[in-house]
Amino acid sequence: MKENILLIEDEQALQSTLSLRLRGEGYTVDTASDGTEGFEKATTSPFDLIILDIMLPDRSGLDVCRDIRQAGLATPSLFLTARSQTTDKVVGLKLGADDYVTKPFKAAELIARVEVLLRRVPIRSGHGVHRFGSIQVDVRRSEVTRNGKPVALSAREFQLLRYFIERAGSTIPRGELLRSIWGYDEDTLTRTVDMHVASLREKLEENPKHPELIVTVAGVGYKFLGSRSF
Ligand code: CA
Known about the structure:
Shape: globular
Number of helices: 8
Radius of gyration: 18 Å
Order of helices and strands: EHEHEHEHEHEEEEHEHHEEE
Distance between the termini: 21 Å
Structural class: alpha/beta
Bound molecules: calcium ion
Number of domains: 2
CATH topology of the largest domain: Rossmann fold
């Protein structure tokens, strides 16, 4: 199954070129030419990845990314930036972007980044909806709700949650999470994993200090308990 990509880019020539290249790689591509249209598409249809330009005519790609995250969608996102927009890159990554490429770039470079972002967590749970307690996770839509209200997860937090759900009941070493979700070598920055787990607990656990969903396995890693899919 090839993934759906939403491309938000106002430069028509670039939009056409990139769409063509991505379709050539077998992806399904939908496009938007401004931020408003992009946000509407991103929040009404499920996408596996969003590629968005920062400089858009109406609202910036940064605003679009923030609004998508606030709507509770954790769809991986890749920014297209101009060389001068260093600050925007930092802001973008804080707002929940997963990666960026700097214009001008070769299409092959973009394709490579796309593959990395889509490969990080293989979609094994398909279009499953998972429920545990007051939490519902719609994998296909990258959407998490708690008591029916959207929960804003970063794309990385969502990937981590999905990884846990797919391996519910198994102890997962920190090193495996680092390699699978972040792509780092083992033994680097394991604290990164702990920080993301802490953040997930804050957002999902009834009592984050006494977690019941994502429990710590001392000296090893974590175990996810209690997912029922249907
Ligand atoms: Ca632009």
